[in-house]
Amino acid sequence: MDRVPIAIVGCGGMGGRHLLGLKELHDTELCNVELVAACDLRRDNAEHLADDAERLLGKRPLVFERMEAMVEALPDLQGVDITTDSGSHHAVASEAFDLGLHVLCEKPLAVTIRGCNMIMEAQRRAGKVLSVAEQFRRDPMCRLTKAVLDAGIIGDPYMLFQISAGGGNQIIILPWRHDKNQGGIVVDAGVHTCDLMQYYMGDAREIYAHTALYEPVRYKGSRIGVAHFYEHWVGEVPDEIEATAVDSLVSLIRFESGATGQWTTFVAAHGRGFSQSGIYGSEGSLHSPGARNGGPVTVCLDRGGELTGDAVLHLVPDFHLDPTTARLFGEDRWGSYDFTFPEADRKLVAVEYQEFGECIETGRRPEVDAYVGRKALALVNAALESGVLNRPVTLEEVESERTAVYQAEVNAYWGI
Q: What is the pTM of this model?
C-alpha cells in the first residue's frame, strides 16, 4: 500500500500521544500514512519525538523548526498533523494550507471562532483536506450509544445531563490549560463534551451559562497530565501558576430538536470527584460511560427493565463498527472492553490517522470536518459568552462572530 507522507507539527506531549497512535496503525495492514518529519519551534522537542519515532517505527523522521523549511526540503510531503498548543492552531493550520498541505488538527480547531474562520478560509483557498482530531465520538461505546439513540430505543430524547467535578487547585495536565488565551481547561476538555452532546442530540440552538474562576492560583501536584504522556516535561512545570481561565461552568442548553441539556463542568472541586451522564427519552433512559474507559452502556426501559453491556447489543442487531475501528479494537461489536486508557487512546488516534490518509487519497470528507469542529467550539464559547453577558447566547450569533465579548481579549492577544 502506498503511504501518504506526513509530518507531526508540535512535538510535546500531545505529539507523542499521536506518535503512539501512528505506531498502532503502523502495525496493521491498514497503515496508509508515513511519518517523514517532526517539526517544532523547540528543536529539542522535535529531536525527542524523532528519537521516539525511530524506536517505535524503525525510521527516524527529519527534524525541522519551521514548516516552510520542511516543505522546501520535502517536496513530496502531503499533510501535517498539528499537535501544537491550542492557541496557535489558527496560525499553524493557516500556514500549512498556504504551503499546500492537507491538515489534521487536534481539537479544538482554534480557541476562538475567529480563529476557526481564519482556518476555514485558508482551507477554501488551498482546496485541501481538513480533519479535526476529535476522539470521543469514535470510541466503540460512544458509537453504541449513538446507535441506540438512532434506533429509537428510548423513544424521543427529552433531556441530557452531563455533570462532572474534580481538579481541586492542582495544575491540570500542563499550565497552559489554565490560560484564557490558550483556551483554558473548560475549552480544552469541554470541546470533547460539546462535540459528543451534539453527536448524540443534534445541533444545539442556544445556551445559558454561569461561569466562574474559583482557583486563581494552581499548584504542581504529584502527577502531571494523564497516563505517562507528559513525563518528559515534568521538570518544566513551576510549583505554582496564576490561572486566568474559568474553572466552573453551569449551563442549560436548548437543542434544535426541542430537547434540553444540562451541562456542568467544575474543575475546581476539592474532595471526591465524580462524573455522570444520562439521556432521558419518552420510553426510557440511556447512560453512557464516556470514552476511553470501556465501561458498558446501560439502557433502562419502561417496558423492559435495565440492560447493560452485551445485552444492549441485542437492542441494535444491525450495529457494527467501521472496519478500521473494528480491526484496531479486535471486534466489530462491543458491549464493553478491557483496554486501558493509553491503549484505547492510541487506537482512537490510529483511527483518525487512517481516515486522514484515506481522505487525502480519495477526496472524501472527514467525519469531523471544519464545520463540525467549529460547531463544538461554538457551543463552548457560547457558554463563555453567556457567562459574561448574563443572557442566553445562540450558536448562530457566535459562529457568525456577531457576539464575541469573551473572545475579544483572546483575539486581541493573538492579533486576529
A: 0.96
Strands (E), 270-348: 274-281, 284-287, 298-301, 305-308
Count of all residues that appear for the chain in the document: 416
> pLDDT tens-digit profile of 187-225?
999 999 999 999 999 999 999 999 999 999 999 987 666
The residue among 121, 67, 63, 68 whose CA lies nearest residue 90 is 121
Distances (CA, A) of 312 to 298, 364, 410: 7, 32, 45
CB atoms near residue 181 (< 10 Å): 18
Residue 226 has pLDDT above 80, yes or no: no
Pairing of strands 284-287, 298-301: antiparallel
User: CA–CA distance from 278 to each of 134, 149, 200, 305 (Å)?
Assistant: 21, 12, 11, 16
CATH fold for domain 4-135: Rossmann fold (3.40.50)
Could you please state the CATH topology (level 3) that the domain comprising 137-339 is classified under. Answer: Dihydrodipicolinate Reductase; domain 2 (3.30.360)
Q: How confident is the model at residue 231 (pLDDT cuts 50, 70, 90)?
A: confident
